[in-house]
Amino acid sequence: MSTLTSRRRLMTGVSPLMALALLSPDAALAQTGAGVRPDVAVQANTTTAQEAGTPQGQATDPAAQDNSPSPDGEASSADIIVTGLRSSLQRNLDIKRTATGVVDAISAEDIGKFPDSNVAASLQRLPGVSIQRSGARGEPTGITVRGFGGDFNTTLYDGRRISTATGGRQIDFSTVGSDFIGGISVLKTPDVSLASSSIGATVDIQFPKPFDHPGFRAAVSASGSLQDRAGHVVPTLGALVSDTFADDTLGILSSFIYTRRDTDTNRVFVSGWPGNGFAPCQLQGSTAATCAPTNDVNAAPSNRRTLTGWFPQQYGAEQQRVQDERVDGRIALQWHPSEGVMVTLDNNFSRQTLNTDVYGFGVWFSQESLRNVKQDANGTAVSFTQAGSPTDFTSAHNRQILQTNQTGLNVKWDVTEKLTVEADGAYAKSWLNPGNVIGSQNGDIGYGGRLGTNLGFNITGDSNKAFPTISNFGPAGNAAAWADPALIGSHVTVNQTQQNTDELKQFRGVATWKEENITLKLGGQYVEDNFQLLNRSTFTNNFWQAYSGYGAPSGQGGGVSPLPSSLYQGTISLDKFIPGFAGGLPPSVLIYSPQAYQAYLSGLGNPYAQNIPGFNYPGATDTANGLRGFRGQFTEAVDPASILTVNEKTLSFFLSSAMEGRIGNMPLHVAFGVRTENTRLRSIGQGRQPTSITRSTTDPSLLTIGFSDTQPVARRNSYTYVLPSVDARLEVTDNLQLRFDASRTLTRPGLNLLNPVLNVGIGQRVGALSGSGGNPNLQPYLADNFDVAAEWYYQRNSYLAVDFFLKNVSNFIVGGVTRQTVNGVIDPTTGQPASFAISAQVNGPDATVRGVEIAWQQVFGDSGFGFQANATLVDTNKPYDATNISQTGFAVTGLANSANFVGFYDKNGFQIRTALNWRDEYLAGFGQNQNTGAYGAEPTFVNQSFQVDLTSSYDVTKDFSIFGEILNLNNNKQSTHGRFKNQLLDVFDYGRRFTLGARYRF
Known about the structure:
Elements: H1 3-22, H2 49-52, H3 57-60, E1 65-66, E2 80-81, H4 84-98, E3 103-107, H5 119-123, E4 129-133, E5 140-145, E6 148-149, E7 154-157, E8 160-161, E9 183-187, E10 202-206, E11 217-227, E12 233-245, E13 250-270, E14 275-278, E15 307-310, E16 314-338, E17 341-364, E18 370-375, E19 381-389, E20 391-414, E21 419-432, E22 440-447, E23 453-458, E24 469-471, E25 489-490, E26 495-514, E27 518-537, E28 568-573, E29 588-592, H6 594-602, E30 637-638, E31 644-663, E32 666-687, E33 690-695, E34 702-707, E35 711-731, E36 736-747, E37 758-759, E38 763-765, E39 770-773, E40 781-795, E41 798-810, E42 813-820, E43 826-827, E44 832-833, E45 836-843, E46 847-859, E47 865-876, E48 898-907, E49 910-919, E50 922-926, E51 939-942, E52 945-955, E53 960-967, E54 974-977, E55 984-989, E56 993-1001
Parallel strand pairs: 7-10, 39-45
Antiparallel strand pairs: 1-2, 3-9, 4-5, 5-6, 7-8, 9-10, 11-12, 11-56, 12-13, 13-16, 13-55, 14-15, 16-17, 17-20, 18-19, 19-23, 20-21, 20-22, 21-26, 22-25, 22-26, 23-24, 26-27, 27-30, 27-31, 28-29, 31-32, 32-35, 33-34, 34-38, 35-36, 36-40, 37-39, 40-41, 41-46, 42-45, 43-44, 46-47, 47-48, 48-49, ...
């Protein structure tokens, strides 16, 4: 029997066996009611209908009394009234302390007052939780828990899964309005009655409901924010109204939030560092008479590509101007006809619209064209020259709309004093770019051919402090004419739109039986997920190459030059483009509208109704060239290989028991459970084979792929897993408790990975042929999890905790890249069968992740001062090995040590809080924007990050307050690199953001 099989069987049986042993007479346990605080349920989501209708004054009212136990275990004789942040921290502490499993929580300080303006930003204050940011916006968009990010974490709204049309299973936290959230629970060990489908954590976002605060309540807020580079103030507005009536049997709550964020971000980038062999003749100091790099083993030794190395595929800089608008709306209706019945109907709506204008430049490198190459000890090309390098000035208008709507009905009925029955159903749908939307409109102009330059490239430092320097730039090396419109002509034009939908149907039923010392739960859950993906682009019909070639000044056969001067709207200086980073850039980039550029080219007319100089007319034998269908408009065509439909049905059953007892005089709380999950999946795609490759006559770097007719391809898959868990909490003293938790959890593969066909794009570049394939037979990741923790609650609102955790994870999905031929198609640049870099996913090896979380919260009596501090140290037995150039390399992603410190003052209506967040370098994933190398999927690392945020508020009256916020006070930058530290991929400078606003409640 294998070790893995033994471990799985052991985990299946450990929960009930341990619970029975702990509660047996041999364990000297006398079942009593001691040790459980009556105000907190044993399980995170155990609530009766009566409790659901009980006012939450003690739990959430800012004027609530802090009656938490003093160090000697007794309630303080002098009640201290605390409000705002300190009251929130005490509630969070109470939840953590009394939860049976490992749970951290964040509570609203007041109705309409969440600690941070972004949900993920609040979550990163918790031990073991770190965030990922959107480089273009600087906004936290995702979280990593104990080294597991993205799909490894499940996010719920009031216990329900959320649909997301982005293609994965994780949500973008920047789409969640935080103003009127009631609280968030982060379950690091599973509650089997809620979910076991997250190896990282389950994040449950709780929204307020009318009977949380019976009677009339309302809150409004308004603020303006300013990003230092964008230079103008944009608003955020929110309102919440809640009331109960008809003798407190009916209630309604409604909220609305409009949020706007504008950000101008400077970016320097390398699109990818492909690995391949250099020939000795390419190296600095070579005296070879000719240089023709080849893989032919019979060629002259100086021409054989025998030297391992990496080079930058494309280098450039750009400014991204992002307008982020979000609308959130919520309505909740509750009917409370009797003390034992609560019916809740709610609807959550969100719509985020991202409009991004991008202005930049880019230069393309081909490895076989590089000369005077100097490699460092790792093989990275740190300097070289390339003759005839073209220069592109790019612009883009990107528009992404993500819309989600969820409707749910929940019924809770206290059948007897001991039995509660709950039924919950929800329907949700999410859309990516609904309606008649063009997701991205791109313009690309520049010069090349006889104006191509003998460009120099040089790396001057590591990616966290320097970007590469280019030299001898400009047309034919004339730097003074770098952006001369008279020499610039049209090149490629790319439009593309991703349109996805995700539809979720779910139902959960549970019966809860409560005795004095035991709580039993029995129930089931059904979830059906229908995901549809489709991409439209001008790559599909090859319209992107309609006017490629740069025009007459470059000596190319295609392209239009000069372009009308009215297209140009100025320049953006690249001088001191990213302060604090060394490196040299050209003087500027051009500002022009891609829509106006495309409109100008379309205005030239139908090239088949008249001769249009500069149009890329296909040759007589070029039957694969889609430009035969071009009639002047840059319309998109559906990419058949992108069409994907995935239907996933999961049926789960669960049983759990929470018990109380004693070991000697020490109260013991034990919960065990088991959940079975059966998943059935059907994946349908559209398959086609490449039949030809044609080289562009106007731009020798461009290739066009011809295809066979498409055929539908369908695949099925199914799997069943048993997921047990056990949680034990021992109160050694009134202030010290120990925890032990063991569980099995799983994470399903991303829906976008389940495509049953191989996709080779129609538009390719010389030396960079690529394709990708999905795998509907992927099995879920499976983890056996263990926690051992000690928590010391040494005084009111203060504690110190240490938690050791271990995760043994199997079925890791490896996204490898292999070089292979496809359908025997010939590469016209070599005359040999074309070699494609094919990305695909398979279930791979096992790995162990281990670590420790340390958390310390200290409030200094009634002084108003306090702090929160935590650190997470993680490690794995499968770290990344940069020296492994095999195509099957594997490493655990997302692992990084992290630390957070929040210092605050909160008294007499004045609050100020400083948050310091640090995360060490980590491997974000495999694959880069350009990933066509011979050594598999190249990695992307995120460099160490440290950010300081400052928030403050003042209560002018008991109902009216003003607040302010400064994000990224220290002007932190986000940077990434490839296999080695000097292989810069991206550096984003997203600046600081200032917010000032007011809040009123009544």
